[in-house]
Amino acid sequence: MIFENAAGSVDATVVRLLGTLSEAAAAPLEYVARWKRRTGRKAVGVLPMNFPLELVHAAGALPSLVQESSEAITDGRSLIYEFYCAYSRSLADQGAKGRLDVFDAIYAVDHCVALLGALDALRFAIEDRPIHLAQFPASMDEPASRVAVRERIAEMAAALAALTGTAPSAAALADSIALYNRDRALMRKVMDMRRAGTARISARQMQAIVQSAMVMDVAEHIAIMEQLVPALAQAAAGAPSGAVRLFLSGHYCHAPRPEVFDMIESCGVSIADDDLFTGYRFIATDVDATGDPLDALTDWYFNRNVTVPCGTRAQKTVDGADTLLTAIEASGSQAAIILLPKFCEPHMLYFPEIRKALLARDIPFLLIETEHEGLALEMLKTRVEALVETMKRGVAAH
Amino acid sequence: MNQPLQTPAPANRLTSTRAGGKLVKDYWDNIFTARERGATVVWYNGAALNPIFQAMGIEWCHAEAFGARLAATHMEGPAQAMGEEYGYLRELCSYARTTLGCAVLTRREAENPASTAVADDMVLASRLPAPDLIVNAYAGCSTGQQWDEISYRIFDKSLPFFKVSYPLLWGNQPDFDYIKGEEWEAAARYVADQLRQLIAFLEHTTGRAFDWEKLREAMHYIKIAGQLRMDALDLCKAQPTPATFWDWVACIAPINFLPGNQDLVDFFAGVKTEIEQRVAEGIPALPRERYRLAFDGIMNWNKVGWLANKFAANDAAVVCGRYTHTSFWHEPHLIDVEDPLLGMAKHYLLCPFNHNAKVLGQLLIKDCEKYNIDGVVFHSTRTCRSASNGQMIMAKMAQKAGIQTMFFEGDVADASFYKDAILDTRLEAMLESIDVKAMAGR
Ligand code: SF4
Ligand code: SF4
């Protein structure tokens, strides 16, 4: 997408800043390697979906959320089966190929059966460094869960202190929390502008902004975001070109291929909002900056699932389908595309509930199953075009 | 290799397990009438919480077990079709989508019994009594835990619902091992605390006091039955083996969810006696045992007989397996009958899908040594990532220990995922390798 200022010239600042973020998002391990060379400090690879990055940051290391690689899956096939989701297979593959050796340790807190399988596979692929699981209970309703999460966070803090030689002190944690809150707020501003139609930003670019925040040093990311937000606001948004507004939902733990976004947008659609992990889900919830930081990180885990409920959690008091309906309506979207990674168990379990809710509200939607390789974009395009036609006619069809 | 005969001699299955089949049938028949009897019914998934329900005086329906029963009796079709109509994709855990299909059918039946006019083949799938409460206690697998989130929603979020959470036995600490280390002890205490909270929840929901004496009594019988089962399994060290894995599969339902009482003890005493007799009289499970194999993975409920015949036809005695030998009250010494909750919590944590791959590999190799196993058959279960997790690593560990391995793709409750020819070819190849190794060792 080209950014034009009032005079019609390309806004080079926006392009440059987005270029830097996109580069980190597209080549995260290279970014980590450069960062380590530059700082001489340690880097911890963390896994989605609820990892408190602040903890690693406060221990003086770089927390970098391991992304799905676009490389073909080869060596990883000897660690986990082909009927696992793309992310877990890619994780095992990256581990088997030594790509994750850039990290001094790998940490995870989440409970998804495929993710745990991949993490276990990494223990065999990367034998010489800590692969730490501090499992947060996925059930959010019981008082015992809160106690357990608080204990796991404290254990992680101790393990990180042993790894880096720097205990994440309360003061350091408060600083880290403030930084990550600031970064999240800046990213939310961009999303607000997208929703309001005051900044024209493609789904690919929006994802690069969030994905790079998962990967990069937070201070560096903030520095770029502080330039990008005003620059985007200044760049003439132009009218949203009468395009049909659409909501993207799904992908609980990793980034959809940007080509899918490009294909969708090429059908005369503008993405008004999303609840993707590499989108609003990741940045929606701040950590309370007051009080005990470990308590605040514990609360954050529970609050996140209220703001944007995730199918990988078990919580009877919130409902992802209801939140989705509210978000679709608030964004003025006329339809939704559900992006479901093939073999993603939690999403497959929740999909009928989502479908039921969308049908009940007469919101047109399309289910797209994404894969690591071999996405039939042309075929999918035909389906998206059909959805767009439906929306234009104002008829709900599925 | 040894060629299968044209008409293979049938395996000599245990006869004592038939009594278990009768107990299980009676149990389900009783559950089906719970509504008419005015009983309180809990639907639960995961760990064998039944002694707690038994002591609470409520009737329990293990949803997974019902899915397994449907698949084992080839009655899973209508439930799965209902699941598909509801929106479940075929790659989703077939256990979950079968049983959730039942939940949708049960819900419809309960709402409007006159109008459903269910077809004959749907009758069983829709016969579960609608629950009064839901309890989830699924270790290891996130799908198992989330499945009841959906059950809860199918019943309009209106039922009392309690969840027990388990940490995967991961091993961050250096002192961690199977049933060892502070991480293990802490996990057990954490689960035992949740069981106490579950009991409080049941008391609150039913308005009745929990009967601790009844729990001790149930656990007294379960501990004895569990020990009898393990003793009987041990007897299969004999060569040729007096019973096979497929006989043990027939014993899963009784040990997993039947009431803890004298009948349960009598059943396992009967099984053990039959095996002792066979050992004393030299009666083998297979007419010609040539290979001794281990089976890893979750059960293939709609293919149990088919698989048993296939291995028997190749003179391959499947002697042990993860699902039968390392689960279901399999460490009875951990149960303190006087104060049973901690021991129960430990068993729940020892679900065969709640270990890390290294421990799984070690347990497998230990059983291979114990039962003198030549090769391991890995059932890579298409829709169960929990049972599939770690299998490739276990296979590498087994190969390193000099044990042959093979994989075949199947499923827990969806017959469409089998590829018969691949299983045949791979089994033949593994048995040939075992022959070659045996010849080289002569
Ligand atoms: S949430 Fe879905 S995509 Fe992510 S690891 Fe789990 S199964 Fe895979
Ligand atoms: S995936 Fe496997 S372990 Fe998980 S609920 Fe289904 S059958 Fe059970």
TrEMBL record, chain B:
A Pfam family hit: HGD-D
Protein's organism: Novosphingobium colocasiae
The name this protein goes by in its record: 2-hydroxyglutaryl-CoA dehydratase
Domain of life: Bacteria
Molecular-function GO terms, alphabetical: iron-sulfur cluster binding; metal ion binding
Keywords: Iron, Iron-sulfur, Metal-binding
Family: Belongs to the FldB/FldC dehydratase alpha/beta subunit family.
Chain coiled-coil ranges: none
